[in-house]
């Protein structure tokens, strides 16, 4: 009874509004606006859906056996399995800790060193060959030294992760600090800003676009950095899980681990994008 | 009167492919405490360079600047500068830009905001407190810069064409405000301007410069009575002084 | 599929890709010998080597992307449990090559109790070998402090990071001895007989092209026999295929080859022992690597191994 | 006899100059200036020398056997050996070709895609998850698919290399294009510049500091990119050589290969630094 | 006279937290071919916004601009703009900045350089051809921008305070040069200035604007004889016109 009267009143109000076509227009426009904004939020799920469709089609068309390319359904089933028995969580936690450590270590080092190198050309000349070298040497070749010097615990993975993310951030810190408007430096000097104030009130905000760019690369690479560290020698973590899955020809499990990695990378990247939205609001 | 700021035999040579561009040559100047000095001269004659040297931002190629009789070897918080460009930070709102000097001095936020509100009223930017600089017109940006230079109440003000982008009326109003502030706070001002009327109206002394190398060609003392009101520009003494300055500028 | 070649040499040699382990290595000497002496050519085959990670290569054989790979028996069992249609057609390593090495005296597995032991990874042949050894010696895995150290066994042993390390018997111990260290070694093969490396192909090739498989096996066995008969000549051939071995590193590599011979030698070269497969599968089930029991005959066949 | 008279004249001229102390002062100053400039050029060799000293000290102090850490002398001897028999050249040529291919492919893709993403927010939202994912997945995990899709020839290494260098460049292209001064865009629009002119006359020069930053990261990572590609499956190239050296316990050979990698990376990096010096001259 | 540029009922509303800032409201303007129009008004009243709309850079919130009677929906190469800021490219030298419009039009380099050399002489920057913009003074940068706007000889010039950073003498000289060029080339000019004298001296008509919303308060036709020389500023007619404009500007 109540339901019916509600419907009735809705009908009445609708027909009433209809006569008032100006207001309708406004509603319509705001609805379209709303949809446009929503559409932006739909893009991410859309990208995901597109991916799933593409994947399934490759499986069908390519006719690959599951141990080469399992279907989405199989991977999902495996995901549910390893989620429910806690295996995935456990390995993921390990890798997350390494990533966190690597990010903290790598980003601080990159910022501090990048700042110093940006300020001093001769320090840059002296140190940059080492930095470049550290990036050109494959981690596996360093494995013996890493194991000897840092044991095989989590520290070595944190270090490998830090090493991986360090360089893109360092370069962007340098580019950013060197691009600071000289006139604003003069302004800050005339106000007798301390070195720290210069850094925090001028250099950081002015190079923020570049810092956030470096951060985007760094957080994305942090995932692979930790995993590569685990590849060298580990008995836990997602990199280890991938290795075990490969060794056991358990491709669905490997895909679950890979997607977890991708998920972590996407989450970190999204965080930076959100930070960018807030911090670069002034650019309109 | 005590000499507060003294420049002695300043030369500034910028490196250039042709071997060096002499922006200032053997420039000497002494400014007494509480004095209002205006500098006029052709475009590119070294006025901005002079202010940068006086502000301790640019070490001269030779010569020395003294503040309170002590050699000045870097910027000093007694000196406030308004640059020729507004030099606002685009990531800060109008209020945030204005309180920057206080933030650097570590003043607490409420007091800063109170003073900023006052200055915003002074420069006529009510309603734009939360605007970012890209939303300001040229003159509005310049007014923000003026407010920023006034907020920390420096003993010496170095102003590089502070009213260049302002319309005639706003400019007149700002002139009067500047005089009022200067008289009230007994500051010392060195101001670059392109407007001869403005120079004579405001200053105790007008310095006229020549181009490359930048040197002093004339110093015109302005002995008009103070406090001055806008009417003074119609007086004969004013016209005569303006004419003297005009004639002193090298064509 | 192309028609099966006859036993007699055909005029146009047929290209076959043989996927081997990671890198060209002295351990592949028999293959190089077979190529050099024309044993493959005699079967009408032209061999192309393909190096990579063994698990990847095995997968490629499983899909039919490659026809032959050299891999170990435990991998075949694991792969088949995941549905890869791979079959082991020729036994090469008669003894399982994994061992435990230490720079301190080590007589029996029990000496490892309470010690720190390094292992490359918690999977793969060395892990299986390790567990098999503990199982055979009745040691509780919890009584040994096992560390994952990657492929840094030599460095870890020398710098004292570990008391012992799980190694390949013909690699690290040889290297350490060559460098002047006293090494004690416990080979897993002394305690348990599990299936080791051999030639692997897929069901499709066996069904469509049995003659090809037979030819491959025959040529490889000839190379193996020659190597066992005259290791010095074989080593000289090997150096032609692995130019990275220079005069400085040749003695060490020669020693590695010498050690290998102990693991290859057998009365009936190429034959797989069904009992070994049985043992392997039972053991892998016991430690939970595989869940379902499979027919041992799925894993391997001896039908292509012909007596000379 | 000749020597004596030379000395004499040197003495005379010296004592002569001495009276003329003003000129001496000028000479001295210019000499110091000269030395300062030279000093800058000395920094790179100095960095190298420092490295050698450090290395030798670690060898002595750590007392490592040569198969863990060979001495500089041993590595040098090995280097001479593999240089003279052409082995190093051969592998290096392979890797260089892969690097060149990877750089061309990766940098063009990054520039084109970066430009498009910088211009279109919705394209960015749609595509960036895929890009992030492509960076978070370890190459080794995809090896079988790579081999199936691209065979095991050099193409797959070029692709892995391109994938490695692509991301830092892409992000910096985006940051650069988005940082272009809007007032200058207005200027160019008012002059009716075409899209291409906008790009080449405004967007490229204005984002040059960031592009060069991205390039620095990319060229450095290109080396490791090619090598990782070779690790997966190869029978030639420096990555292969490293693997072989490890497999043969030939640590000096591994070091030679590593130093070659570092040398390539340093050379590429130096090229970018030189380009930077020329192209950013206007910043003074 | 034919109407070359027509703005009809232009409104520009910038989004702002308070719901929208009305920079221009129902602004209409018709400029004849060959006319010289000056726009004056208080800082922030919408003069720069108006020029951006007329130049096709900013689509108005409502209303339409017509060029040669056709709706203008984007920038057009017939129109040259001098912005309030110099807007130079820091990676280009003075010469390279000046020839930018010709480079975009695809003119060959030697002809471009010849024209540039001429304009450099005109704005008095000889010897600075190869300087980068950071080595220029404020006034010099502005002169480069003027030279750049003149080089491709557009039919319509939109000038936003082009002489704001110039000293009185240079400004006078540039005024005369501008008049000479305008008369010789028969261009159409719309110029924003803060200097009432300048507005009257140069223009055929002075438009006076009010602040927020920007509207026209007065149009003062200037019927002084042409060609004009500097002496004209001392005439009574000139003073009367200047006074009219001054009074029309809202205080
Ligand atoms: N950083 C610099 N490098 C090289 N030359 C410079 C530099 N700064 C200024 N100059 C030169 O020094 C001279 C004086 O410049 P300055 O900025 O002091 O002039 P100005 O009097 O302020 O002129 P304007 O009134 O146009 O602002 C000019 O010729 C200019 O080209
Ligand atoms: N991009 C923008 N976003 C928001 N508001 C803007 C923007 N540009 C201008 N405004 C506002 O529009 C109004 C008019 O600005 P405009 O630049 O046209 O003034 P103007 O007359 O040129 O002033 P001035 O003489 O100071 O240059 C100002 O209040 C300004 O704050
Ligand atoms: Mg100046
Ligand atoms: Mg304006």
Summarize this structure as a short list of keywords or feature phrases.
heteropentamer, B: 251 residues, alpha/beta, six-stranded mixed β-sheet, 8 helices, C: 308 residues, five-stranded mixed β-sheet, 10 strands, globular, disordered N terminus, binds magnesium ion
List the helices and strands and how they pair.
The complex is a heteropentamer, with 2 copies of chain A (284 residues), 2 copies of chain B (251 residues) and 1 copy of chain C (308 residues).
Chain A: H1 2-19, H2 21-62, H3 72-84, H4 87-119, H5 121-136, H6 139-150, H7 154-178, H8 182-190, H9 195-206, H10 208-232, H11 238-247, H12 251-279
Chain B: E1 3-14, E2 21-32, E3 36-40, H1 47-54, E4 62-67, E5 70-71, E6 79-82, H2 94-98, H3 100-105, H4 109-122, H5 138-151, E7 156-160, H6 168-185, E8 188-192, H7 196-202, E9 205-209, E10 216-221, H8 236-248
Helix pairs in contact in B: 4-5, 7-8
Chain C: E1 14-20, H1 29-36, H2 39-42, E2 45-51, H3 54-63, E3 68-72, H4 73-81, E4 86-91, E5 98-102, E6 116-119, H5 124-136, E7 145-148, H6 153-158, E8 164-168, H7 172-178, E9 184-187, E10 197-202, H8 203-208, H9 210-229, H10 231-241, H11 250-264, H12 274-286, H13 296-299
Parallel strand pairs in C: 1-2, 1-3, 6-7, 6-8
Antiparallel strand pairs in C: 3-10, 4-10, 5-8, 5-9
Bound molecules: adenosine-5'-triphosphate (2 copies) and magnesium ion (MG) (2 copies).
The site of one magnesium ion has 4 residues of chain B, from helix 1.
Give the C-alpha Rg of chain A: 26 Å
Give the overall shape of chain A, derived from the CA principal axes: flat
- Give the CA-based shape of chain C: globular
Distinct helical segment count of chain A: 12
Determine the structural class of chain C based on helices, strands and strand pairing. alpha/beta
Rg of chain C over CA atoms, rounded to whole Å, is 19 Å
**How would you characterize the largest beta sheet of chain A?**
none
- Order the strands across the largest sheet of chain C as they lie in space: 2-1-3-10-4
Q: Please outline the major beta sheet of chain C.
A: 5 strands, mixed
Mean pLDDT of chain C: 87
